[in-house]
Automatic annotation (TrEMBL):
This is Amidophosphoribosyltransferase. Catalyzes the formation of phosphoribosylamine from phosphoribosylpyrophosphate (PRPP) and glutamine. It comes from Brevibacterium pityocampae. Residues 165-184 are annotated as: Disordered. Pfam families: GATase_6, Pribosyltran.
Amino acid sequence: MPVAAPRPRALWDNDGVARADGQLTHEIDPQDKKPQDECGVFGVWAPGEEVSKLVYYGLYALQHRGQESAGIAASNGEQIIVYRDMGLVSQVFDENDLETLPGHMAVGHTRYSTTGSSTWENAQPTLGPTRFGTVALGHNGNLTNFLELQELADTRQEVRQETVKQATQKTNRTRGHRDSSNDTSLITELLASGTGENLTEVALELFPKLEGAFSLVFMDEHTLYAARDRHGVRPLALGRLDRGWVVASETAALDIVGASFVRAVEPGELIAIDEDGLRSYTFAEPELARCVFEYVYLARPDSILAGKTVHSARTEMGRVLAREYPVDADMVIATPESGTPAAVGYAEESGIPFGQGLMKNAYVGRTFIQPSQTIRQLGIRLKLNPLRENIEGKRLVVVDDSIVRGNTQRALVRMLREAGAREIHIRISSPPVKWPCFYGIDFATRAELIANGLTTDEICQSLGADSLGYISLDGMISATQQERSELCTACFSGEYPIRIPDSQAPERSC
Ligand code: SF4
């Protein structure tokens, strides 16, 4: 009789190190990853609803913001239970897992991290004791004053230990020490050792001390909270259900669970939601520095950022690019899928028809199967296949959102030439990426960024294209319809709007 193989439950080995998967990720070339947003957060307060399922679908909609681990913490008003694991949302949770997370309130998290820190300990939501109960917390962003905050935490060790002692007497579920090395655990620890009368007071006292980028969802047994740093670097949206409230990294995640978008959580705002209603507090005056890369690549095109859909900003970037770098050609094609809105904009503005040149496998996802050497050599063909009949003999404009190392575009040019393209003109809807991000996005190292050592002509040569044009910084900013002074453009301009972290800063958590 055949025996069913057990379903793989985790992507890490006994040492807590991420186990290699098949690398068949959504990236066209896993060795040439796009800049990675490091987390998505989601929270629900909705009496009478199965909120863990709502959070599941919310995280599903935010999967692009983090594919290494996922977690949900749920509260029934008396107790918080957290379930988190390595892998995609669909790999971490099944129906039975969600049934172990009862309650009317929950927070969830999807996380991306660099390989070295991809461990279960760093998965979120984190859980910690406070003098008022337990706090579960999910974070998107990156703090830039980790060492200062660590010193603050060290000076509060006595309060912390007393809190832990009391919590341990109440329950043996709660861990009594920082269980990972990241800044999210540090925030949890500082919330545990604060001196306010309740968690709201503790948060209002702590958050002005946090520097860098943070969009947080957190909760104790009774109240759901959301908070955003005073620069508003990462997005955070508030939505309404018939019988409750939702907070999510992006508005698209509100749509997917049937919540209507109310407004963004404002920079410098803390929101508390419970049976007494929704309360809003200002913990810092806004000094806006929204991440412009959210418009270029990171956010979903169907999300709304600062009143504008990401899709319309990307399409406009394509129009600007067509004005800045026109070319005689027969067809505009996109690098699927992130280049598509800009390619459509380029086609509209230039009058050159938009066409399908590359087919992407829509079902690409992580796999447990290690590719053989033969399969590995296929490279980007695992993900993309050229439509020869559309390409042969044509002069193509190929639009993409950004170039990191250039490996993807180089392979693409080779593949299109093999399929018979006569000319290949690459157009990029963001300026050259030259600087690292300290506010929650994982880039290649400076040395790996192709634009860091080469001129545009040299990059064009290296890719084997007939021409290459990057949108200007001003052109990209104008397409977002945001004030330049209210955006972070540091990875393009090198102008950092928030103090850069100490060189000793630890690994990014999220
Ligand atoms: S440096 Fe600024 S613009 Fe670039 S990814 Fe980071 S936050 Fe966004």
